[in-house]
Amino acid sequence: MARARSANGLSRHQYLFFIMPAILVVLGFTAYPALYGIWISLTNLHFAYPDSRFVGLDNYVRFFTWPALPQVATNTVIFVTSVVALQLSLGLMIALLLNKLVFGRRLMRSIAILPWVIPAVIIGLMFQQLFSGSKLGIMNTVIAMFGFETRSWLSNPSESMAIMIASVVWRGVPLSIILQLGGLQTIRRELYEAASIDGASRWQVLRYITIPSLKPILLINLIMATSGTLNHVDIPLALTGGGPGRATEVLSLSLYNQGFQVLDAAYASTIATVILIINLILTVAYLRVLRVPR
Amino acid sequence: MTTEAIVHSRPLADRPRYRLPELAVTYALYGLLSLVVLFPLAWVLLGSFKNPGEIFAFPTTFWPRDFTFSNYTDVINRTALPTYLWNTVIVTAFTLVFSLGIGTVAAYGFSRWEFPFKDTILVVLLILQLIPSTVNIVPYYMMLNSLDLLNTHAGLIIIYTAGNVPFVIWIMKGYFDTLPRSLDEAAVIDGCSMFRVFWSIILPLSLPGLSAAGFLTFLSAWSEFLLPLVLANSREVAVMSVGLFSFFGTDNTAYHYAFAASVMSTAPVIIAYLFAQEYLVSGLASGAEK
Fold first, then answer.
1. pTM (2 decimals)?
2. CATH code for the domain in which residue A220 is found
């Protein structure tokens, strides 16, 4: 305790000088804005008008009766569940692949993790050009080589959603690989040796040893991927901007559009608060459902 | 926080022997994975060396017919990209200095003193980190507006710093915890102040952790998109991501610049990644040990 420390010459309250700057900056620019945002959602603040006043839950009523909500909510659910499912499963498969002690695996690891460091806006613009609707898009050239008709990918609602999911997964899988590879390498080898002595099949090893041992890491990964995808704006904004129509408009994109295109700050804050609450519920729910046995 | 064991390669003698079919499948999958990752990147990189006539020609080529640097010289001389990149460098550099400065000092405090509510404060920091900047975007706008910091680099730097400090604390605290306290105590007995101990003894021993925390901060500050798009989007202060989005993404006539601009904007992070890789793995590893 503090008293014991001071006996060693470390003065008792000196820690305050060390930790206070960090605590102040984090409280001031993360916790305070979050609370301030909830307050804004209870007002009628609009970026085009100087004054605002308290309006209670009006914005929430507007949000839940918003005609576009069913489509945006559906898009968000499709987007988030597909991205998370793909990210976790591909991450696990690639981590298992990279966990084999074969020649070249360090190079392969570097390549596999590479998309993680590419700025999101560049990934959005890059996929936009790969799937460019004109003849200039390389994917059109590739499918033409196999005898298919060229197409305008991003003007088709379901194809743009698929491309948006693919590009977010392309960038997100490396994080799963990093996490799960770390998890895989902490599994005790004796478990595998015992299993092979008992004649367990590969599937049984995966099902009864690898996945249960990875459970805590998978859980962390699940939470990070879900909240990361739910809050993700960069790639959708750069890739499709929510279009065609509202076909790829997800909740986080509505937040940006309402706040900074429509300038309805209070409505944007309402959406933000809803997203914050969903984040919270998901995290708590995951922790309960997939409670990790200690 | 978890790449722990990547560093601990198993001894060679223990390596399992794989049979040929399994090896074949493994390398086939390696090839497929490399293709999926590298093909889009290679397309952009190679595109940056094509002359505009070839970029707009059909059928599309993958390998440039003749290599040219004209896109690079054009992007540097005729567009505002150098300004955007310079702005990005400034914002990233100051974010790095402040995040690492404030974060490591705090991590040292958390590592070396026992005080009431210490664990609670650490957990609260971790939870606050989970609040995404997307959700705070409107309040950030209002706050910077009242502080007169809209369209300034300072505004971005403060917000980025607040976003990065919590994980710097977590990584660095993990690292400091592995250094014995007797080091500090010996130095204090010799008459060093705690700040002096921290600066001249502890920090130099913590370079791997510092590199990992620094790389992650660098990566997020360099790539940040939504925050600068909303908070600092005028041409003079715009950072790389905003510049690329506003002035290339929506302008099809600048299509041939986009490749070279993307390459120039991504090169710094890729180079940093190649250098930081080893430090990154071992630094994150010690953070995981808690």
1. 0.88
2. 1.10.3720.10
Ordered structural domains, chain B, with CATH: 14-73 (no CATH), 79-289 (1.10.3720.10)
**What is the nearest CA distance from A259 to chain B, expressed in angstroms?**
7
The model's pLDDT over A180-209, given as tens digits with 9 standing for 90+, comes to 888 888 888 888 888 888 888 888 888 888
Domain residues for the domain of A216 are: 69-248
Residue B56 to chain A, least CA–CA distance (Å): 7
H runs (alpha helix) in A132-264: 138-145, 157-184, 189-197, 202-205, 211-230, 234-239, 251-260
B134 close contact with A: CB closer than 8 A: yes
Mean pLDDT, 10 residues at a time, over chain B (290 residues)?
43 63 89 94 90 74 83 87 95 96 94 88 83 90 94 96 92 88 84 84 87 91 94 92 77 72 93 80 46
Does B148 contact chain A (CB < 8 Å)?
A: no
Is position A43 within any domain?
no
pLDDT digits (tens, 9 = 90+) for B53-92: 777 776 777 788 888 888 899 888 888 899 999 999 999 9
Question: Which chain B residues contact residue A36 at CB under 8 A?
Answer: 139, 142-143
H, E, C per residue of chain B: CCCHHHCCCCCHHHCCCCCHHHHHHHHHHHHHHHHHHHHHHHHHHHHCCCCHHHHCCCCCCCCCCCCCCHHHHHHHHHCCHHHHHHHHHHHHHHHHHHHHHHHHHHHHHHHHCCCCCHHHHHHHHHHHHCCCCCCCHHHHHHHHHHCCCCCCHHHHHHHHHHHHHHHHHHHHHHHHHCCCHHHHHHHHHCCCCHHHHHHHHHHHHCHHHHHHHHHHHHHHHHHCCHHHHHHCCCCCCCCHHHHHHHHHHCCHHHHHHHHHHHHHHHHHHHHHHHHHHHHHHHHHHHHHHC
Specify if A234 maps to a domain. yes
* Beta bridge mates, A54: A43
**Residue with token string 């790095």:** B96
Number of domains in chain A: 1
The Cα A20–Cα B225 span in angstroms is 29
For residue A276, being part of any structural domain is answered with no
ipTM above threshold 0.90: no
Within a domain: A292 = no
Interface test with B, best of A1, A30, A279 (most B CBs within 10 A): A30
